[in-house]
Amino acid sequence: MAKYDDASWHYGGDYPDNLPDENASTHIGMFLTWCIDNDLLSEEQLEDSEEDIIAVKNRELKGSEFLINNCDEKFSEYDLSDLGNEFARSYYDEESSFAESYGDYGSDYEEHFEKEAKKKGFEYESFYHIEDTWENYNSLKPVIDARYEQWKKYRD
């Protein structure tokens, strides 16, 4: 089973001392939320996590919380449908041919929030300081939507 990301990969090493480990799940959770919103979860997740999927769609549970509670902090091919995995392999992996040509999720995430912070007159101390809010997810969603549309044309 291929693993796309794991919160524990982030909160070891250079992770900021002043942040809770949960902040390492923010970026993963936002992508997972997008996948939930676009019905790209696996049959297993749909069966095992139905209530929490509905809670994410209703904005009662954040994607990061879903990741922690339902995925043991790990985002893997187990979590996504075939189409979801195709997209994740192309966009979440910075070394894929699609990502090298158009952009990868991590870079898009960081660049988007750097621009948002600059507009508001500040800058984030690190990638992990980006707030896990619905407002932030809603601002990022069009970026992922646009990459998804590019990817659909790219794969045809």
Model description:
This protein has 156 residues and is mainly alpha-helical. It has one domain. Helices cover 59% and strands 4% of the residues. The protein is built from nine helices and two strands; from the N terminus they run βαααααβαααα. The protein has helices at 7-10, 26-37, 43-48, 50-57, 63-71, 82-91, 97-102, 105-119, 134-155, and strands at residues 3-6, 74-76. The chain has a two-stranded antiparallel sheet. Helix 2 packs across helix 5, helix 2 (26-37) crosses helix 9 and helix 8 packs across helix 9. The chain is globular and about 40 Å long.
The gist of it:
The chain has 156 residues and is mainly alpha-helical. Helices cover 59% and strands 4% of the residues. The chain has one domain.
List the helices and strands and how they pair.
Elements: E1 3-6, H1 7-10, H2 26-37, H3 43-48, H4 50-57, H5 63-71, E2 74-76, H6 82-91, H7 97-102, H8 105-119, H9 134-155
Antiparallel strand pairs: 1-2
Keywords summarizing the entry:
single chain; 156 residues; mainly alpha; two-stranded antiparallel sheet; 9 helices
Shape: globular
- Count of structural domains: 1
Main sheet, how many strands, which sense, barrel?
Answer: 2 strands, antiparallel
Task: Tell me roughly what share of residues is in helical segments.
Answer: 55-70%
Name the strands of the widest sheet in spatial order.
1-2
